[in-house]
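PROTEIN DATA CARD
Card holder: Chromate transporter
Chain length: 185
Origin: Treponema peruense
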Amino acid sequence: MNLFFLFLIFFYIGLFAIGGGLVAATFMQQVLVEKYALISAEKFYSMLAISESTPGPIGINLATYIGTELYGPIGGIVTTLGEVLPSFIVIIAIARFFAHFQDKPAVKSVFATLRPATSGMVLIALIQVFSIAILNPLDTITSPLNAVKWPSLAFYAVCLAVLFLTKLHPVFIVVVGAVFGVLFL
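Structure generated from the sequence above:
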């Protein structure tokens, strides 16, 4: 795969990933892991975890990380431009014309449809990340007790309890999660 094709893949992802970084991550997983097998699922979800832990938009962080991993710094620049350029073009076009058609029933209907579709894409990403992080791969399961990564599940439960029962900022949970992942997984 050459850099131009990689740019087109990320341009496509950036164009159709309406709803944020987790939607873009779902598209990236479908295209890069399932369709073209450029990276393994395990590697992809590790990259996703690191991208979520670093400051900035998840989709752009992930695109940059994947491009850099595949083709070095030039690949990172190409994938980042591919990811960002569609949004830039669309925002410029919308800003130019939105005032003229924002009250039209068709426009309101499109936005009303996009909200639940985007929520569904985020839910899919959540389920995929959760299953990779908490469940063992099917081919490694020897018993029902072996189906779950118990340290990961326990850590998840503790983090969830801390988030709901304290006023600790979620950034601290992300940092502790990154350290946990590096040290114990």
